[in-house]
Design brief:
Strand 6 (174-177) and strand 7 (180-188) form a beta hairpin. The protein has a six-stranded mixed barrel with strand order 2-3-8-5-7-6. By secondary structure, the protein is an alpha+beta fold. 56% of the residues lie in helices and 17% in strands. The protein has helices spanning 3-16, 18-55, 84-93, 128-132, 144-148, 158-164, 208-216, 234-248, 261-304, 306-314, 319-355, 366-392, 396-401; strands at residues 60-65, 97-112, 115-124, 136-139, 153-156, 174-177, 180-188, 203-207, 223-228, 256-260. It contains 13 helices and ten strands.
Amino acid sequence: MALLELFRTAFSNLLVNKLRSVLTLMGIIIGVGSVIVMVSIIEGAQESVRREFETVGSNLIFVVYAPERRATGERRGTFEGLTMEDADAIRERCPLVAFTNPNLSSPMRVRRGSEERSVVVNGVSEHFNDVMNVEVATGRSILPDDVKERARVCLIGPKVKENFFPHESPLGKELIARGVQLTVVGMLAKRGTGMGGDDRDNTLIVPLTVMHHRLLGTRLLSSIDVKAVRPELVEAAADQIWKTMVNRHEDARQGLYVDSQSRILEAIGKIMAIFRVVLGFIGFLSLLVGGIGIMNIMLVTVTERTREIGIRKAVGARQWQILFQFLLEAVTLSGLGGVIGIGFGWSLAKLVGLVMKEQLPTHVPLWVMAMSFSFACVVGVFFGIYPAYRAAQLDTVECLRYE
């Protein structure tokens, strides 16, 4: 029997019991779809992180102090945190460093008239744009004189503009944070959600000296962002920074982190790989459940078509032909479920990405669709081999006598 004819016969037999075939297909469809959706979420998150890092360049280094705490909440050691002196030391003692951007970040209530909102306020140096590549859409950036003179100026994100100045230009207008009147001199371009899920458009940027002396009254920093002179010298620059910081603060060694962008991206990639495997495994379990459904339906089919098997054997069909016919039906069932599952999973992944573009971006790689379809076919072979073998081993006489 020609292969095309075998496929035609397989489809005809599946259409005899449409409802039963559809219910069996559902297990494969859901399994393939769930694999595609879950992997696409992980791939989308990793792609989003990669794009975010690319926007600031590949030669960025982060210096952060995050001390471990005892159960009582007491800090270990006497080092309180990063200061401007540390940023100056990095700039002076590390020849592989091009720019430093010491910064301090804190959520605050910002007010304009009767309107009041919670906004993340960032105090930055005059080099923050050189380091972070933040685009100013309108107006100007923070200037060296702003930092030096503690000028009460600010840049605002698009969401702050939407909340406080929905129908007017914000430039030259005033905002009040902790009793300090700040003049808007620029608006940032839209940046969306950050790696930690924070809204980077709901931000207000002020000179670091304003943050230290007018808003918070502290000399500490949240972090020091550093840009190496060239991308290929990032690791060497990070080593220089580490040695400089340890020489200045030996007791801060346990809580001090000097990480390059590439190291962070690599660590995130490893975490994403673990999630990809775990979520993919959950999806494949769904496929196995669908495979069990295929085995069940094929065993029922063999019982229902016992007399047909006997007739085919009586007219000369061999065991391997009977086995191949029923195995092909199982593979056809699983393959059809795989194709529909790919369409279902792709559509659902795109819908999730469309509805939750900022919070949950998705990316459907071709390899996951090919892998899911291949695995669906393998499931069909694995769970179809026993029913097919059972059909091939039936005795011709007993089959003809079967009612």
